[in-house]
Structures are given as C-alpha cells and as structure tokens.
Prior knowledge:
CATH superfamily of the largest domain: DNA mismatch repair MutH/Restriction endonuclease, type II
Largest sheet: 5 strands, mixed
Mean pLDDT: 90
CATH architecture of the largest domain: 3-Layer(aba) Sandwich
CATH class of the largest domain: Alpha Beta
Amino acid sequence: MARLVLRTPGETCSNTDKGEHALLAPEDDAELRSIADWLGEHAVDELYTDAIRNAIDYVLDSGRTGRFDLLSPEVHPGERASVGAKLEYEVLDAFGLQKLKPLDTEIADVPVDIKATVGANWAIPSEAHCQVCICTRIHLSENRHKSWLVRAHRSWLYRGKGNKDGKRGLAVQARDQWSIPLYDWTALPVNPLRYLTDGQAAEVLALKQGQVRRMLKMFRWLEGYVIPRNVILTVGAGRQDPMRRARELRDRAAAEGLTVLCGDWVESREQAAARGISLRPGEWISLREKSGAAEPAPVAQTD
Length: 303
C-alpha cells in the first residue's frame, strides 16, 4: 500500500466544497491560536479527566448493571464507541460552553468540533473538514488520555470518500506535526474493582449474597484504596439503598481490625488526613489497625 503523502503548510488545501485555501502551520493560524490561548486559561487535563470518567460511568451504568470495566466482554463495542458522543456534552459542561451550530460549540468566537475516540483515530465529519477540532484519544488498555487541537484540513485527512457518512480519519503526520497538544498523556483513574482477582470480583458482585457481606469483602480485599461512591453503587447494583448498607458495616469491619472511613464525615476526613490520605465527600477507604496502632496505608488509588 502506497504511503500517504500530505500537502504541507505553505501549500494549498484542495477542499472542493469550501474552496481552495492556504494550509497554515499552527503558529500561523490566528483562530487556532486564539482557541489555544482560551483553553490555556483552564486546567484542561484535569477537566478532561473528570469529563472522561463521567462519560465512562454513564455508559457502564454501573449502579444498574454492575459493570465496572469498559473493556469487559459484557460491554458491547457500540457502547464503548458511544463514550465519545457522551464526552462531547461532558466537555461542554466542564468548560461552561454552549452547544452551538454549525459544529459542536464556539471558543473565542470560532466554531469548534469536539471529537473523541477509544480507538486509534477520529471520524471527522464533512462539516468539520478544514475546521478546528479538539481531538481526544482515550487509550483504555493503558488507562490514559491525550487531546490535540488541530485544523482538520481535508488535505490532511485520509483519502477516499470516508465511511458511509462521509467521515474521514486524520492522518497521523498531521496530528504529530501540525497540531497543538493540549496536554501530555494523562492517567485515567482506575476503578478499584479492577484490582480484584476474577474470583474476588465474582464474590463481591454475587447478588445471592447480602450487600453488607459483599461490601465487607470488598473493603477487606481493597484495604488502603479509595473507594468512590460509584463503586459502592456498583456492588449494590439493583438493590435497595447500598449507601446505607455501607454505613452499616463499619462495626462488623472494626471487629476484624478494619477501620472504614467515609469522606462525608469530618472525623473520617481527619483520620484519613492523619494517614496522609485526602478523602473527599462520597469517597470511602478501609484501613487496618495492627497491634493497637495504625499502620501506614498502601498508596491510595481513586476512581
């Protein structure tokens, strides 16, 4: 297969729909720079991390389905791909942007399309050809993400008519050489349930057992890991009031040497802080007491 040779900045983009125009390097594209400046006033990596996590949680619907891993065979490929569509709205909300035509929104008075993929490339629709796009790659197997700001010139898209909707992929060379990385590869929080063995996960999610019993096993096996509220809801999927059940198990946990803390309570936050752990409202953690003294907890993880 012949290697795709792209036109470079300084040459002409042969976009027959929008007319021919000059290909500009990012530093010479005033609209691209104005958007980059606006985004530079925000913690883009943090906002995108939260937005992606929310989009994944929405698709998994853990509180109803009990699913906690987007790569699980239980998740249909179509559901996995829908994370990008949900992420668009999470990003708009995170940055306080409006949904505006002709693309997804406007930043610094410039139309912007918001694209995301859990694969290796983006499907750029015809209306976004030669327009500014924020392109996010969610690398699920490595639990990380990265976003680029790029003008998706038709001359920088893969050849052909694209898929049945006319969408075409962005050439790797264009992404690597003529885009603006908004942040470096950034870690996505790992759902603590993924640290369980298959056997442990089966017991924690076994609906025939009571919620308190299963949650107690989870806290025992995930000692030292921060457990977000969403995980509690996952373990109690389809059952009544799992948060109340989590509160009820503290005495039983204490009987086996586990202190279960919840960030909703000031006392718990103070106890966690004394261990060097930041516990936010809605988060839980179990810490083991040994020989009557508190032992340092493992490195706390969050979802």
